[in-house]
């Protein structure tokens, strides 16, 4: 074989490597710019269009899967790298092992867009490809959101709040419906780029693109819920206790004193402390500590919501709950976390050996009941989510429409100075949009904030600084379509698009 012939035979392989691996990986990494703290919502749409172009040009299902895997790996290595911080800095896992574990976790997450690429190649043909690409991508996002307890972090739809016109679809279809709208725009964009010589087709594609954006923009003007009472004065406390010091005996007394002082000093009707703010079991707090807070709250007619750990006697020992408990005018209540974090709050069966590597306290929490009523405080009802529970939209709506305000307490100190806390705030914005309700967040190190019913952040505390944020959420009544049907409407649309793609392939049109 001559040198020229050898170069010619290598060029297709190089093109395949670039088109099915390199470009999708770069596009996936760039898509992170659509998420907080960057909020560049058009970037993920353009990035996904790059992946869809790659899928159109991949000659085999294997290559399409490779392109999806590369996109997912780029997205998650850039956007979920904070897992390394949790494992190494706070879980004390050796750096090399933490880096490997983070890579393997991101590779697992990349399997879902890889599966979507395989589905597209099997279903796509002509117009069917245009339908199959967005539907398959979002279908696998949904599967990722529940498989093995679920991890819907960086779902594409989250990047469309609050500035994107597509945010208007959230009260109708939820996060996955917004994902589908964004993915449809990406598919139209990819088809537009691939149809350079077809003016009529390009005009139709551009019209559809504009119409979808316009529909989302018009929906943003719809008021799905209405005020149900006066604004409630709320104080959101941010203790800023370093995670590596939080459970030390010499730090505990100071933490308890500081929170007690902030609660007593606040004139708000409702005072909220973050997740596990009190670094002790409730039954092992210093004598009189809770009684003092309770008497103060009852005398002032206010309610205190405290993130702490409950220890409940059980056969053979005790059960531990990550809880929010109330003290004060509305009487004692508690909400116990239902959706626990694997390896952080419970160890999956068969992984007990990992306790020898990770040094994380309290990894044996029990799950709270699936059906828990809203908490009453300050004359209104609160739907509570602890930590990353608020990234599961269908779980948040379980307390609606009875609850008038959403509340998240969290401790994102586990992720250090990474993107995680800002991303988590953005996911809370989606919950506010989906439900048409205010969301208030009390966190240990940030982001402590208030979000109105349209997903706009109205007040925020600086991260990694102690403070108290005074906000006035307005209770709201009524229910958005998403509150009534959850993800079922979005899933029905996905099924319809995939069925249409399949029928077009079968009929050859």
What features would you describe in this structure?
With 509 residues, the protein is α/β, with parallel strands linked by helices. The chain has two domains: 11-223 and 487-507, no CATH class; 226-479, 4-Layer Sandwich (Nitrilase/N-carbamoyl-D-aminoacid amidohydrolase). The protein is 47% helix and 14% strand. The chain has 14 helices and 14 strands. It has helices spanning 3-31, 42-57, 61-79, 82-90, 95-123, 127-144, 170-194, 199-219, 249-265, 289-300, 393-396, 420-435, 481-485, 488-507, and strands spanning 226-227, 234-238, 270-272, 303-314, 317-328, 333-336, 375-377, 380-386, 405-410, 439-443, 449-451, 457-460, 467-471, 476-477. A six-stranded mixed beta sheet has the order 6-5-4-3-2-13. A hairpin with a 2-residue loop joins β4 and β5. α2 (42-57) crosses α7. The longest helix has 29 residues, at 3-31. Mean pLDDT is 92; it is low at 1-10.
Q: What's the CATH architecture name of the largest domain?
A: 4-Layer Sandwich
CATH class of the largest domain: Alpha Beta
Q: What is the H/E order?
A: HHHHHHHHEEHEHEEEEEHEHEEEEEHH
Share of helix, binned: 40-55%
**Can you give the mean pLDDT?**
92
CATH fold node name of the largest domain? Nitrilase/N-carbamoyl-D-aminoacid amidohydrolase
């Amino acid at each position: 074989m001559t040198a020229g012939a050898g170069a010619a035979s290598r060029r297709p392989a190089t093109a395949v490597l670039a088109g099915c691996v390199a470009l999708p990986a770069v596009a996936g990494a760039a898509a992170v710019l659509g998420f907080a703290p960057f909020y560049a919502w058009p970037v993920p749409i353009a990035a996904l269009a790059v992946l869809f172009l790659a899928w159109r040009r991949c000659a085999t299902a294997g290559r399409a899967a490779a392109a999806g895997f590369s996109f997912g790996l780029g997205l998650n290595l850039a956007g979920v790298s904070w897992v390394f911080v949790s494992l190494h800095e706070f879980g004390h896992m050796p750096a090399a092992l933490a880096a490997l574990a983070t890579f393997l976790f991101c590779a697992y997450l990349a399997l879902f867009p890889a599966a979507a690429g395989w589905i597209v190649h099997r279903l796509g043909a002509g117009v069917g490809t245009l339908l199959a690409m967005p539907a398959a991508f979002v279908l696998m996002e949904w599967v990722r959101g529940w498989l093995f307890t679920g991890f819907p972090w960086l779902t594409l739809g989250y990047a469309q709040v609050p500035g994107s016109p597509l945010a208007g679809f959230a009260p109708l279809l939820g996060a996955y419906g917004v994902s589908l709208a964004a993915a449809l725009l990406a598919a139209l964009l990819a088809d537009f780029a691939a149809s350079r010589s077809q003016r009529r087709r390009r005009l139709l594609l551009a019209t559809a693109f504009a119409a979808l954006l316009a529909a989302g923009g018009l929906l943003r003007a719809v008021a799905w819920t209405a005020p149900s009472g006066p604004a409630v004065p709320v104080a959101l406390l941010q203790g800023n206790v370093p995670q590596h010091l939080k459970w030390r005996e010499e730090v505990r007394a100071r933490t308890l004193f500081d929170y007690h002082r902030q609660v007593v000093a606040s004139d708000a009707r409702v005072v909220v402390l973050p997740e596990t703010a009190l670094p002790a079991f409730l039954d092992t707090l210093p004598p009189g500590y809770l009684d003092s807070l309770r008497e103060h709250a009852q005398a002032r007619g206010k309610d205190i919501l405290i993130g702490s750990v409950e220890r409940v006697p059980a056969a053979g020992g005790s059960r531990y709950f990550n809880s929010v408990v109330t003290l004060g005018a509305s009487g004692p209540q508690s909400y116990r976390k239902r959706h626990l974090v694997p390896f952080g709050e419970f160890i999956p069966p068969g992984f007990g050996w990992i306790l020898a590597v990770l040094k994380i306290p309290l990894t044996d929490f029990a799950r709270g009941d699936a059906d828990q009523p809203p908490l009453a405080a300050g004359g209104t009802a609160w739907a509570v989510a602890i930590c990353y529970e608020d990234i599961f939209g269908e779980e948040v709506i379980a307390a609606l429409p009875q609850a008038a305000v959403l509340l998240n307490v969290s401790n994102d100190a586990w992720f250090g100075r990474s993107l995680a806390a800002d991303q988590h705030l953005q996911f809370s914005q989606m919950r506010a949009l989906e439900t048409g309700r205010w969301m208030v967040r009390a966190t240990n190190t940030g982001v402590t904030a208030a979000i109105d019913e349209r997903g706009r952040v109205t007040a925020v505390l600086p991260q990694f600084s102690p403070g108290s944020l005074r906000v006035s959420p307005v209770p709201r009544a009524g229910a958005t379509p998403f509150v009534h049907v959850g993800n079922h409407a979005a899933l029905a649309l996905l099924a319809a698009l995939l069925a249409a793609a399949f029928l077009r392939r079968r009929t050859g049109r």
